[in-house]
Write a structure and sequence with these properties.
Length: 376
């Protein structure tokens, strides 16, 4: 009974500390991100570490020579309840590589919807930390995520892997997470933007469909808007935050088409957002409007094949899970200091003009551990 009371007091203290952290970080919530090239200029030693690590990720698994003394505990908190299969494939490739490396592990996974389940994610974080994992895999998008992560960094344990972010935060530069891992949102968006703007003749109206206020919208939507602003003939006529909800994207698209029947492009910040916009375009027989996806998962590839989407940035998806597993392995053999601060996976542009053979080749690379999408 006494032990329960001690644990209860500790939990209460941790909760109070968390709330104080929320208040203290409010003014810093819009913390600056450091682009990869700028980060490497500031930390040139990372260049060689990243190159060596990329070789590990691309290569075959090298199993541990001897088993660790105890099982590695890993807690994963993902916004995986969405049409995009990125998060589910991340888990699948992570576990597949851990098993190939013969790393003994215990995994606790917590899933939620993106953006709208922030309170649930906070509770999941508390539950995960009470389990005392060796590693916590989390993401960063909305302001509350920033505050949750700061709590973990302040505690100093577990080792933190930040998924789906490859632009380190300046505020954490002196004490970074164990690993930033994912795919460069800005790089992928530039590929999409350059193709769409050229196809549109560098003129015309476009609709911006953001995700939620936060990192993804800033890196993707902000990058597209900046690229579009370079061309005087391109005009943003509407912008909506959708919270990643396809129904909100659908409604926003219908409203914009009604107000601007000469709409030429829609930039969608995520898979679910793109699919919601596509439903509106189909219903109004407006597939002439250029529409992108982001990520190149199974749902997007199907929409591309059906002629609904025009372009997407396809992540070589499973490399993110492999990278996390390789980082864990390196730490187990006392090579944790050789793990780079960040890993940014490869991105390929796929358009409605890309051949089916080329798409199949990319699928085999992207889904090498999580499995190819089912073919009709």
């Amino acid at each position: 009974m006494a032990g329960c009371q001690v644990r209860s007091r500790r939990a209460g203290l941790a909760a109070a500390l968390f709330m104080l952290t929320l208040v203290a970080l409010a003014a810093r919530a819009s913390g600056e991100y450091i682009r990869i090239d700028d980060y490497l200029e500031r930390h040139p030693e990372q260049q060689a570490l990243m190159a060596d690590f990329a070789t590990r990720v691309e290569g075959p698994a090298m199993p541990l020579a001897s088993s660790p003394r105890r099982t590695v505990r890993i807690a994963v908190i993902y916004p995986g309840i969405q049409a995009s299969d990125y998060w589910r494939r991340s888990l699948a490739s992570f576990e597949a590589r851990l098993q190939a490396l013969q790393v003994p592990y215990e995994l606790k996974t917590f899933l939620s919807r993106p953006s709208v389940d922030l309170d649930l994610q906070a509770r999941q974080l508390t539950t995960a930390l009470q389990w005392r994992p060796d590693y916590l895999v989390f993401t960063l998008d909305a302001v509350p995520h920033l505050r949750m992560i700061e709590r973990v960094l302040a505690l100093g344990s577990p080792r933190l892997i930040l998924q789906n972010i490859t632009t380190p935060l300046a505020a954490w530069e002196s004490s970074p997470p164990f690993l930033y891992v994912g795919f460069d949102h800005a790089q992928g968006t530039r590929l999409i933007a350059d193709w769409m703007l050229e196809r549109a003749g560098y003129q015309g109206k476009y609709l911006m469909l953001y995700f939620a206020p936060g990192y993804v919208s800033r890196m993707r939507g902000g990058t597209f808007a900046a690229r579009a602003a370079e061309h005087p003939g391109v005009e943003q006529v509407a912008a909506y935050y959708t919270d990643g909800d396809p129904d909100k994207a659908y409604e926003a698209t219908l409203r914009t088409l009604e107000a601007h029947p000469d709409l030429k492009m829609i930039f969608a910040n995520s898979t679910d957002v793109a699919l919601g916009a596509l439903r509106a375009l189909r219903e109004t027989d407006r597939l002439d409007v250029l529409l992108n996806g982001w990520g190149g998962g199974a749902a997007e590839l199907e929409a591309l094949n059906d002629g609904g989407l025009d372009v997407t940035a396809m992540r070589i998806n499973d490399d993110n899970g492999v990278a996390m597993a390789e980082a864990v392995r390196m730490a187990l053999v006392s090579q944790g200091d050789r793990v780079p601060h960040l890993y940014a996976g490869e991105i390929a542009l796929i358009t409605r003009d890309t051949s089916r053979d080329e798409i199949l080749r990319l699928e085999e690379r992207a889904f090498r551990l999580s499995g190819l999408p089912e073919q009709d």
